[in-house]
Each structure stands twice: as C-alpha cells, then as structure tokens.
Design brief:
Radius of gyration: 19 Å
Order of helices and strands: HEHHHHHHEEEEEHEEHH
Strand content: 15-25%
Largest sheet: 5 strands, mixed
Length: 255
C-alpha cells in the first residue's frame, strides 16, 4: 500500500490549515521550503505530546498517577539541550508546562486504555490523492465507534479547526474499519474540551471539501499575506516579507 501511493501527491490536515490561514506562509513552508524557526514554546509542546504518548502507551494503568506523569515530563525536560535550558524565560515555561500536566491529571481519566496513541495514517482518498497524518489519540466508545482526541498545548482559540479533525476521521475510518462518532480538542492550558459529533452529513461534505481543497492547492499561483494574531507565533516570521508591518500591527493592536 505504501509503495503504491508513495509517488502520489500527499496532503496533510496541517497543510490545508496553513493554506487557509496564510497563503504566504504556505509558500514559505511547502513551496520555498524555508527552514522553520521554532519558539521555546514549540519545543515544550512537542515534549508534552511525547510524554502523554508514552504515559498512555507504556505505563501500566495501576501506575498512572499525577506524580508519574509530571516526573516523566521533568526527566524529558532535563534531557533537552543545555543551550535550550539557558534561554531566557525557559524556566518559567517549564513550571507552567508542568502545571498544565497537573491540570490534565485532575481533569481527565488516567486509567483509560486508548485504542491507539499517535497512530500514523496514509490513505488514498481518491485516485492519485493521498491523505496522511498522525492523530494524538483514539479512544473506543462503548458502542465500538471511535473518539478522536487532539491535544492542544497552546492558548490560541483562533486555531480551532474542525476540518482538521474531520480529515483525521476520514483517515481513521479508512484505516481501522470503524466509524468515528466523536472528535475533540483537549486544551491543556485551562482544561477545556471542545467536542463535536461526526455525522453522516459531515462525512459526505468533508470528502467533497477535501477534493475541492486539493484542486485549489494544485491551481494556486497567488500567495498574499494574511496578517493577524497567528503571525505572532509563525515559525516563518523571521523570513517574512511582511514582518515590519506585522511588528507595527502587533504594537498597535496588542497581540
């Protein structure tokens, strides 16, 4: 299967999301392939995702406690580079991230056995079109259907993208042979949960929207900037032709 689709155009939920948010970033990231410049928060977020993956896939249910989870995070933190650990503000970031995990343990059930943790999917959704991606976690509902869960370590509510989850649902159903009925974003900064159902109508419309988006990506030739709050945490800001205007807008608008 992988060999038969490896030569086909490949699209991820992130790719569509970037295109919808900022076509200029899309050009930098996917066409020009400019190296990203990650923020300290991005490194911390990646570590949290890895720790949660290991916690639910490697730690026995009887051993899952808040102390164990935070301890795993602290061990991973100490393994980061010395250069990173010396950066300004990183110690405060460590403390706030550890608090996120403590809130997670107080908000969510630790004894649950997920059906899959960080499964990777690659699915041919139409002739010549491959959709791929990795979802944080999939739980099985009592009726055997699937619940997709995506952890959010940032605090940017503007980044909620239900289409992102619907695309993961399409891949999960094709790969696991079970229907997805629920999709959720779990916000680690404040414990909030955003959940939606995945209905038959959404299933049909999502496939239509997917193919329309693929067609648009294949035809696009104009990449204007879309300046907004998202620019403040863009990993391509250092190379952006609009960075002076972005700095002015951040100053005047307070983001």
């Amino acid at each position: 299967m992988l060999e038969s689709v490896s030569h086909m155009p490949r699209y991820s939920p992130l790719r569509f999301r970037v295109f919808d948010t900022s076509r200029l970033r899309y050009r930098y990231q996917y066409l020009d392939r400019i190296p990203a410049r990650l923020r300290p928060q991005d490194t911390a977020g990646s570590l949290v995702h890895r720790v949660l993956c290991d916690f639910f896939s490697k730690i026995l249910t009887g051993e899952r406690t808040d102390e164990r989870l935070v301890g795993m995070f602290e061990e991973g933190w100490q393994a980061l580079s010395a250069r990173y650990l010396r950066m300004a503000g990183v110690e405060e970031l460590r403390q706030s991230t550890a608090e996120q995990l403590r809130l997670f343990t107080a908000t969510h059930e630790l004894k649950v056995e997920p059906l899959a943790v960080e499964p990777y999917f690659q699915v041919e959704v139409a002739p010549g079109v491959t959709l791929f991606g990795r979802v944080d976690r999939i739980d099985e509902e009592p009726d055997g259907s699937l619940h997709l869960i995506d952890y959010k370590t940032g605090s940017h509510r503007d980044e909620v993208d239900a289409r992102q989850l619907r695309l993961y649902a399409i891949m999960a159903e094709a790969s696991l042979g079970k229907p997805v009925t629920r999709m959720s974003f779990w916000y680690l900064d404040d414990g909030r949960v955003w959940t939606a159902e995945f209905t038959d109508e959404e299933r049909r419309s999502s496939r239509s929207e997917l193919m329309a988006a693929v067609h648009e990506l294949e035809q696009v030739s104009d990449f204007p900037a879309t300046i907004g709050v998202h620019c403040g945490h863009c990993p391509y800001l250092h190379a952006c032709a609009e960075r002076e205007e972005i700095a002015r807008r951040r100053e005047t608008e307070g983001w």
